[in-house]
Amino acid sequence: MRRSIPLVAVALGAALTLTACGGGDTEEPEASEPTAEETTETDGGSLTIWVDETRQAAVEAAATAFEEETGTTVELVQKNFDDIRPDFLAQVPTGEGPDITVGAHDWLGELTANGVVAPIELGEASSAFEEVAVAAFTQDGQVYGLPYSVENIALIRNTDLAAEAPATWDDAVAAGQAAGTEYPILIQMGEEGDPYTMYPLQTSFGAPVFTQNEDGSYKPELALGGEAGNAFATWLQAQGAAGVLDTAVTYDVAVEAFANGQSPFIIGGPWMLGSFEGLNLEIDPIPSAGGQPAQPFVGVQGFYISAQSENDLLANDFLVNFMATEEAQMALYEAGGRPPALVAAADAASADPITAGFREVGSEAVPMPSIPEMGSVWAFWGVTEAQIVSGAAEPVAAWEKMVSDIQGALDAS
Amino acid sequence: MSTPHPPQVEAARAMAPEQPPAAGTPRRTSHARDFGRGFVVKLILMALVNALGVYVVLAAWGEESYGIMWSMVAMLVVADYVYFSRRALPLKYIVPGLVFLLAYQIFTVVYTGVVAFTNYGDGHNSTKQDAIEFLLISNERRVEGSPTYPVTVVRAGDQLGFAIVNADGEVRVGTAEQPLQTVDGTATDGVASEVPGYEVLGRQEILENADDVTALRVPVSDDAEDGSLRTQDARNAFVAKSFLEYDEEADVMRDLSTGAVYTPSDEGYFVAEDGTRLQTGWRVNVGLDNFATAFGDARYATPFFKILAWTFAFAILSVLTTFLLGLFLAIVFNDPRLRGRKIYRTLLILPYAVPGFLAALLWSGMLNRRYGFVNEMLLGGAEVGWLTDPTLAKLSVLGVNLWLGFPYMFLIATGALQAIPSDVLEAAKIDGAGRIRTWWSVTMPLLLVSTAPLLISSFAFNFNNFTLIYMLTRGGPRFTDASVPLGHTDILISMVYSVSGLDGTAAKNYGLASALSIVIFVIVATISALAFRRTRSLEEIN
């Protein structure tokens, strides 16, 4: 039997997703059968929604309202957020998928390439959303998701340690050193790098990842190389040598150090705030390192409808008429702390200065590319940054090699 | 490293009805045939099996999964025949095992084989039918600048229609064949509430006809260019226009705005003459293309051989180190003079009780360059790059695998040592053999007879030890001289995971992953088969 374990693992790992692999040993063949709760009845009146842990309660509230008004049964299936994308891709074609799933906008390219997601007509409601939120879910003029939150990173400042917002990166470092704390400024990196957190600093050198069309969507032409990219790489190396950037600082290390008052600044998102209770915080724009505006990525969360849903009428009704309300969006905001995508709800949430601060920074931000080519970029991007910061690689050469490697990967696929 | 118990054996034990151990002579009838207790037990067990089987058949029928349904019917017929027939005695023992072999192994191997010859992956996720459907729905867009209307779904005879109220307060109604026309209806709050000649549908009726309602297109005017009214939620309607049309007879897609014609290609895409293609494709058979791709990409040439060498080194060294340490400890703890052996033995098995992926994660934290336990506590703050230096990372992987794997080897070596009959050792002593001579000529060969097959399967297991690599180093540190995202501790199976995009760094390609898995399977199977043949020579000692 020992020999067969890897065999089963290989076969399953290849044929199914890795998640299926974990339970593969004990599962009876019958277990892969659709169980009653996964199937949707066709008699009109039931809806299956995939949600993750943090959003379950909030969606449940909207679902209850929907159930009461329409007599529909809504069934929420809780899944790991990381499992939702592969499971949705694998299960929709088999007819086993949900009617609606929660998801992030940067999945869009993959979901449409595989034809598993249906367009949603927001109608008049579309103008009620933040522009960037709808744009993020738009492809070729067609909207594919109902946005509910817009999130981005910003500079979080501990006002007890630094009284004023720094204008530039050098100001921030100087203020951090003047504060006498262990770290002048905290940016998570890790041995594999973190290009998402590093991106605003990269854009401040004028080296965005892809060129943008006029409507804000991306085309698969790399823009992160050239003079601007090389300047950013050189800067990375200098900051690494000066000890300001450090690959040993991971998310956990950075958050803990900031919570302990070991630095006046951290670059991060609203998801960190839970760890910073008791600190006096202010949210500032990310200081520019290269002279140009530091634009972080915007991530938009929303709901997708399955292309194979047998209840698409109910699904559209639920999303457009029950999830696009201020009430539902506020409930999601309160559950997850992510600033709402609906303008009215976002205005209400902005009563909190922290949320308002993130929203302010987000208004300058750019959507994270959702084109499928992005996957190839992530694979090289962070590791190269980490190698440059740790001094393991010569900056300009490493950056140029990275650009040509990404181009090679794009050409090969 | 874990040693799962063979599920089929236990399940077979649980499944096997009460049967006498031997057929017996013709005169003796089986206990399961004489309507005694054995027969009753058999009847109950078979009833359970049948009930479960029928349930699966019905469920599969309901889901229209006819493949599962028919294979289940076949399995049930075979099972009933075998256990109620007089002639199928040997099969009674074999059938449960066979069924599980079929479900767990043969099916997955065959499925992998089938996928290896397709282009299943990103862009080719489903059937052609699904792709066509998606292309059509995604290319039907709202006419820019057109308003949305609160809609009333109506019916005339068996024809569904939409009624709206336009900006002038007029009620307009139409069906699929009848373009919108103004009628003398009643509007309440901007919604058409009564339409002469039509019956207004309630919510329940709309839901019953949901598919027809969302499929309904009511032309706005006689000119098709103006688009047609449609609704997605039966509350609001908007004017939409298709930009793509599927011609079923010619099997081509037509772009209605540019006039371009897209024909289906061998790669599973709709492609126009100028080479542009529609983004969503479907799954097709691509023959041996995946195998050609697997070995045809020049970017992988150098890293592949490095990884192949490391995979062999990792698998062989893992088996050697764990076996030697396990054996050493087994010998030490086998000495009857040692007190408290049971406690030591229990303690030694502890690493074995920790799930492999969890242990690997723990170790990756403990080996962190700056904040890890090893550097911070044991080495007094030295920043040793256990997982970031190429050589040290390889040693760390081997070390962690040693920690995970030696208890298993310790267990089997202890068992094997205790199974060696003491009279053989005594005989060697009487013949005048010294300790070392006895060890090399008697103990060791006898030990290998029982452990060699386990060592071979341990090799095969480690050859594909994806969990350890993925959880501990993710293949890192990266090669600095390669143009692909692979690293110094990547083994073949983790390379497959990355090459085929399953880790998200490239477009997913299950076809390629399956093809590469088959290649790995062939390598492991060949080595194992050769090794098993060699071990047969050992058995002659017995």
TrEMBL record, chain A:
GO terms for cellular component: ATP-binding cassette (ABC) transporter complex, substrate-binding subunit-containing. Residues 21-45 are annotated as: Disordered. Residues 25-41 have a biased composition (Acidic residues). Pfam families: SBP_bac_8. Residues 1-22 form the signal peptide. Keywords: Signal, Sugar transport, Transport. InterPro entries: Maltose/Cyclodextrin-bd, SBP. GO terms for molecular function: carbohydrate transmembrane transporter activity; maltose binding. GO terms for biological process: maltodextrin transmembrane transport; maltose transport. Transmembrane segments: none annotated. PANTHER family: MALTOSE-BINDING PERIPLASMIC PROTEIN, MALTOSE_MALTODEXTRIN-BINDING PERIPLASMIC PROTEIN. Belongs to the bacterial solute-binding protein 1 family. This is ABC transporter substrate-binding protein. It comes from Cellulomonas carbonis T26.
